[in-house]
Automatic annotation (TrEMBL):
Name recorded for this polypeptide: chitinase
Natural source organism: Sphingomonas plantiphila
Bilayer-crossing regions: none
Catalytic activity field: Random endo-hydrolysis of N-acetyl-beta-D-glucosaminide (1->4)-beta-linkages in chitin and chitodextrins
Keywords: Carbohydrate metabolism, Chitin degradation, Glycosidase, Hydrolase, Polysaccharide degradation
Alphabetized SMART domains for the sequence: Glyco_18 (SM00636)
Amino acid sequence: MTGSSDTGCSWSIQESGGGTVAADGTYVAPGVAGIFHVVATSNANPAKTAIATVTVTLPAAAKPWVTAYYLGWFWDTMYPPEKVDASAFTHLVFGRVAPGRGTLGGAAGDVVPGGGTAHQAGLSPDGVRSVEDYLVKRAHDAGRKALLMVGGAGDGDGFIASTSDALRPGFVRKLADYLIAHDYDGLDLDWEDRFEGSEHLTPAVDGVEAKRRAIQLIKDLRVELAKRPRYQGAGRAALITFPGYTVSINELEPNGKVEQWQADIANLVDQYNLMSYGIGTTWSGNGWLSWFSSPIFGATGKTPRDLATSVAAYERTGVPRSRIGIGIGFFGIYFGPGVTGPRQNTEANRIFEVDDVALRYSELVRMGYLSNGTYHWDDVAKVGYRSYANGGYTPPGSKRNRAGFLSYEDEASIAAKATWVRDTGVGGTIVWAINYDYLPDGRSPLLSAVKQEFKPSAP
């Protein structure tokens, strides 16, 4: 429209069930094939419209993705790079880099390496490449995709600072340059916190602006990466994945939905993976009963998070199940000796251990957690756990707090998750992290279970 100060429009879809369209014109297709029509109607003159015709086709049923994190800073102490079984996943995520002014320092808008010596040339098994480049090539040689982890827990301030309108274009270009320099197929955008805004920045940024910057960053990355020859041509488009959150059934929006900004981000990326492990689904105190890391079912008002209800809430907000992944954590969490199983009162509990490094699977084996106590299978939540009676368990000679109830993934819970993913059309899973279950005898029991149950193939 010309001749009016209001050049905006409203959006609609002619067909019932023809998908959804956001206020900015972002269209999300329905889960059915067909021809649909998106209508833009002028605000200044509603008689003026324009129509876009959209043809929706459904791909053949896809096998679930397995997006596995390799933590570069542990390359020389956990899971040697030459031992990585690239056939056990579809996407390898190398950790990591971070936005400047985040947990790794640097100036806002910078891309700061955070993988330790894994970025250093000549240290890989071939004696030439960096461990980072070696793993990217190892993934590609197996027909798998390689993604760069950008950010992580605590990097919210860095992301907000680096994505102001003044700095975001440069930040996006630097990310694109880094991806191409190391031959990545895309990136995993680990913006995990500060969506409520930040008072630590000057000027302070509120939650509305923080969310806007996150969404605009994804859109700008799409545009910039599409310009680069590395990501042009059939099957070469850059991938963007995002680790999001499970949601509490006590905090859902009306009609059982997630907040709209969460659904908007999920619909902008190729994989929206729920960090459902550890404190992603369980807590101690504050009205919670003892609960599991990454349960499939069983959410109640006092155990308010599980995979099934979280995926359903996103789906009700317009996110296709096929775009959502669930989490498998290769580590445990435990409550103190006063709690010996799930669904017990935690208000008096003073021990709640959730350190993923200290409680990685290989350490649970080494320290005797998995050879002591009593194993149980919870047929509601579809996860196993261990109970330690008589005052709890602590490894002999250690100074660790005593454990009464340990929640962790095992072969049975991984099999249950794989079955549920396939049966319900969920997109796949993320694994945090494949460094964690590598044992001194060369076995990786949990990764082997993921490989067996999810049967990942080249994406």
